[in-house]
Amino acid sequence: EKGMSIEELAYNLTMGEGEILGLLFSKGIKPDGVQTLDKEMVKMVCKEYEVEVIDADPVKFEEMAKKNEILDEDDLDKLQDRPPVLTIMGHVDHGKTTLLDHIRKSKVAASEAGGITQGIGAYKVMVPVDGKLQPCVFLDTPGHEAFGAMRARGARVTDIAIIVVAADDGIRPQTNEAIAHAKAAGVPIVIAINKIDKDGANPERVMQELSSIGLMPEDWGGDVPMVQISALKGENIDDLLETVMLVAELQELKANPDRNAKGTVIEAGLDKSKGPVATFIIQNGTLKRGDVVVCGEAFGKVRALFEDGGKRVDQVGPSIPVQVIGLSNVPIAGDEFEVVASLDIARERAEARAELLWDERISAKAGDGKVTLSSLA
Ligand code: GDP
Ligand code: MG
């Protein structure tokens, strides 16, 4: 039977580990060195804090959870299709921004200082699939740090990774990194072999390189879709998007729009006139103006919501990125956010999280936690 570590439980309850240990001790339970709590202990602790333990039908729930950890048992009969969230990754200069730029039909690449992507943008894009326009959402990550940082914080925001490889350059260090990130997160990969318009472009060689590291092209009987494109000339980008949407369809991405929102912070900062601003991706539920949210150490009442492009909206549903105003302070990319019932609850949770992070910082500094005689001397 699976248990849960005290650390994990503390994280889930946004409490300090010390507090939970204290509670256990007060009940006469002395966790062993491994400090894994069995189900009964977890339930007991949760009961003490009046937190409900979700004890879902394990098979059905695991199946859903595999696809989307953000879903609860209650959502299962209210699920609706949601748009896929896509991340473009790849080695520097292989054409990520140019590709996104073409997809958005705007001029991001040209206007960027030094051609380097600034901040993480998230954009909703309508893509024709079988003659019908379907929404999808692109995250424009500045390198892989954001993806890695978010993953390290346990956030799995992306449904599909589009990995761009320049046909005249092949696999480079950041290509490998991108592949490793996608694999570690369990995110399906679609390869965009870019710059096929260039002299010296050799898409076959790229395919060979990729198959030698275990990514076998579909065209060669493997399971990794690869599309040859020119981001600059806009060649075959429709093919790429159609392929991506096909992969998305197979994933059967669902969410329950009919509940309080939760999701992940994609980017956050301080705006001179607006105060703390954060871009959220709604992963489940619907976020409405006036909702009270808590995300990491920040909390507040949602004063205004802006979709990508600056349009003010009253509510947003699953997968859609939205800029949120009204938070007490600036959260961190990768923080989860959640709608709660009142500002008091939000404040309490945010403070508990701040304390937890404080404890983590202290214990990170505290070395191996052992006190030896020589260290006392
Ligand atoms: P990023 O660093 O991956 O975002 O790469 P950029 O999109 O900034 O592109 C780097 C350079 O490659 C720019 O000068 C682009 O104009 C050029 N580039 C991107 N895609 C293509 C393409 O399909 N063909 C050609 N010839 N050049 C491209
Ligand atoms: Mg770029």
Task: Describe the fold and architecture.
With 377 residues, the protein is an alpha+beta fold. Helix content is 32%, strand content 27%. The chain contains twelve helices and 19 strands. It has helices at 6-12, 17-26, 39-48, 58-67, 96-104, 108-111, 145-152, 173-184, 203-212, 237-251, 343-365, 373-376; strands spanning 4-5, 36-37, 80-81, 85-90, 121-129, 132-140, 160-166, 189-194, 226-228, 254-255, 262-271, 275-284, 287-288, 292-295, 298-307, 312-313, 315-316, 321-327, 336-340. The strands form five sheets. A six-stranded mixed beta sheet has the order 5-6-4-7-8-9, with helices on both faces. Residues 56-68, 109-120 and 365-377 have low confidence and may be disordered. It binds guanosine-5'-diphosphate and magnesium ion (MG).
What's the shape? globular
Q: How many strands, which pairing sense, and closed or not: the largest β-sheet? A: 6 strands, mixed
Low-confidence stretches: 56-68, 109-120, 365-377
Helical content stands at 25-40%
Named once each, the bound ligands are: guanosine-5'-diphosphate, magnesium ion
Task: Decide which structural class fits the backbone.
Answer: alpha+beta
Overall pLDDT metric:
81
- Report strand %: 25-35%
- Beta strand count: 19
Keywords: GTP-binding, Initiation factor, Nucleotide-binding, Protein biosynthesis, Signal
Protein name: Translation initiation factor IF-2, chloroplastic
Organism: Salix viminalis (Common osier)
GO molecular function, one term: GTPase activity
